[in-house]
Here is the input.
Amino acid sequence: MRFIPHTEADLDVMLKTVGVAQLDDLIAHVPENLRAAAVIKLEHGRAEAEVASELAQLASCNPGATGFTSFLGGGYYRHYVPAAVRAITARAEFATSYTPYQPEVSQGTTQAIFEFQTLITQLTGLDVANASMYDGASAAAEAILMAHRVLPKRHVVAISRALWPDYRATIRTYLSALGTLELVELPFDLTTGAVDHGAVEGFATDELLCAVIGYPNAFGVIEALAQIAELTHRAGGLAISVTAEPLALALLKPPGALGIDIAVGEGQSFGMPLQYGGPGLGFLAGRGAHVRQMPGRLVGQTRDSEGRRAFCLTLATREQHIRRERATSNICTNHSLCALAATAYLSLMGRQGLRELAARNVELAHAAREALAAAGIRRRFSGQCFNEFVVAIDGPEAALAAAERHGILAGLSLSSDYPELGGALLISVTEMNTPAEIERLCGAIAGGR
Amino acid sequence: MAGADRVAGGKRVKAAIVDQASAVETHLAPAMVEGGVPLIFEETSPGRRGVDARGGAASVKHAVELLGSELCRTDIEGFPELSEPQVLRHFLRLSQLNFGQALQFYPLGSCTMKYNPVLNDEMAALSGFANLHPHTPSRLAQGALELIARMEAALAEITGMDAVSLAPAAGAQGELAGLLMIRAWEEKRGKVRRKVIIPDTAHGTNPASCTLAGFDVVVARSGPRGYLEAAEIRRLLSDDVAALMVTNPNTLGMFEPEIQEIAAALHERGAMLYLDGANMNALLGVAKPGDIGADIVHLNLHKTFSTPHGGGGPGAGPIAVKRHFEPFLPHPRIVKRGEQWDFDRDRPDSIGRLRSFHGNFGMLVRAYTYILAMGGDGLAQASRHAILNAAYVRKRLEAHFPSATPEPTMHECVLTHDLDTRTGVSTLDIAKRLLDFGIHPPTIYFPLVVHGALMIEPTETESLETLDNFVDTMERIYGEALEDPSMVKAAPHSLKLRRIDEVTAARRPMLRWTGR
Here is the structure.
């Protein structure tokens, strides 16, 4: 067995030292009925070449990954991952370490997390960010639980319907056992695609815990966060923004500057491949005053015994391994290596590059929207968009099928999740798309109807 | 930069370098002079870039016009500006400040720091997996869905359970899912019980997950021999107890000898057995959770199934259940219709979603690769060798670091010592001294019930030479503690940093770079 090193001679020495005759004597204390039934009926182990060939075969049965021009978005985005990001995350010193409980031999991890926390505060315009969460959806749920710790006497959680269906479903699950919180849905304006401010006002009472708003939202529409934050604050509640396409934050005003109290989101766009939806990266940022109510790991700056700068996990008294049933969250393992990928990615893109990439996304998406309009496919919402938008289309499934015949994954039909929209297609355009592809998209769905 | 490496050796050299630096008025960041790596923000030069973007500044101006300037920021203040080689050097130098399983012995108890086969990562990077968008129509993602189906079947076979969900992102999320399923199952039957029993040796995630799932925690005390006694569970059982949540082997590394009796007692009173599979690396082909009587078990793919720990994730925490819980499993579920795999959206009893999309699919590819490489027989060998390695270390260290229990232990052992009373050298000091010898310390001070605990899990992938070196090093440290306790208490000595002040970090939190 290539991963297990012991030779027969090693085994002899070791068994003799331990004082048993054979390996199975070591488990003789496990009840006999259990041992007898424990045989794992799977095939024998295989040589590396055979395993590689088997996996390659499975990978080849995913033509959607490689054989199509894609305009899929809706929570996960197609972006180029620079080779340097992979070179960094592949380093075994990063990849095969664990939670940095011993900071003296984890300065690589702790400093990178400290840099990650800083980058997220810069992007979100907030004071503090944690070391990462699982994904955007669970981060949104954790943000609500955090808000509840800040304002324990309030119980109404107002969630935008223009939040991704998976996110709303995840929030429902996380809150399902806590009977104290009441979930209400904020409808969106059918014209603009943005959350209905009147509805926010309607829930703005002294029972309102928080409003949870997409930025951009599930339709790609850029919400007027400042007004929502103001309405929420007037009622004494907290405003939470949720971002699935964090590249937008390079160009859009940061949530913190618009009055948002907790900004969460998905970081997959920052250097992580699509991988059928995971692992990506949840981020969570908030105000300094709320730091002790935050979930998850935090890294802080400190000194070693000779005064040199160092970094270590800190404020652990919030966490499950210390606080147990009174912890701020049950999260332990988070998505550290993904946070490293994001840190490396953002460092490479840099202050100018990230904005230029975001701009390129805006230019292409807006060009696509115009080109589709010229081809007779009109946009569904008047609200401004970043790199994805909704078009109204009769029979979206037929349009998708027609596009697929042209080798194009034209987008995501919203018909089942948002029946009130009628036929609607969510189209995402990133730097991975070319003007020629946009032209083909127009031809395929306009011509295919 | 070459000077920086020498700095850690002594203050005199350091002072000389600082003098030299100030004499020529260089702009070395303080940390660089001190021997560390500067923060990425301190290596910035305005105008530098690490990527070539199309469009440049004109593009930004155009995009702002398209969006309207009232929606836009004008800058990302403080963001780094470096060239690609600078960024690479920064992170590679950071990596060198880490210990990792691939480079060092890393016997962190209950974390199963086994070798992560390099093929795993290569398979996850195959274009057909890495570039697969989660909204891809199912008929164009049959390979991925087939992999999910095979992985579910393999884990069901390994655990002896009936159905598996691969959705949870980590063990703690698996725990939450399992507890919510117990709650949903009870709701369906009309009455929700409020309590979950957890032994005093449990991982912290267990009670934290209970709170999140709306249960009150009742603590069961381990018996005098370190295991959970059926009598204690019977004493705590009532019609208000929903479940017992227990790790087996427990955190002392012991197979719970009365677990089958406990399972029967629970079931008799309508309570469920939730098995925390964090220590599954002891049970492969040894005892199946399903046979033990578990109703729900979660696994940690980053422990037992060799996916990388990543400095703290991403992992994956599949849950396996008995038939009666299958309808309650989280979304998504896959189902075969004719020859095609698809998602089953009609599941009215499901607890819902734990996260977006289909779980940490990239980690599933890695774990499946590992399972194919090992095979059923290889997995069974892995647990036996893991148990042997722990038993060997326990035996060889027993003179000065006796086991916390006289009972047989499995894939890990918890040792204690008398150095603190004899010399004032604590478990933490021993851990820090191990760093000087290039060994990552075991888990320390856990479980909480053992005084000064050293929880050692060597895993099956470590060689006899490595284990012997560890034992010799521990013995040497024991000797050092007797002869020169102050030296041990001041460890580490050979790293770029000395002992790090974690107290100050918490007292005056500095959680981001501010440029000051």
About this structure: The mean pLDDT of chain A is 96. Chain A has 15 helices and 14 strands. Residues 8-60 of chain A form one domain. The first strand of chain A starts at residue 69 and ends at 70.
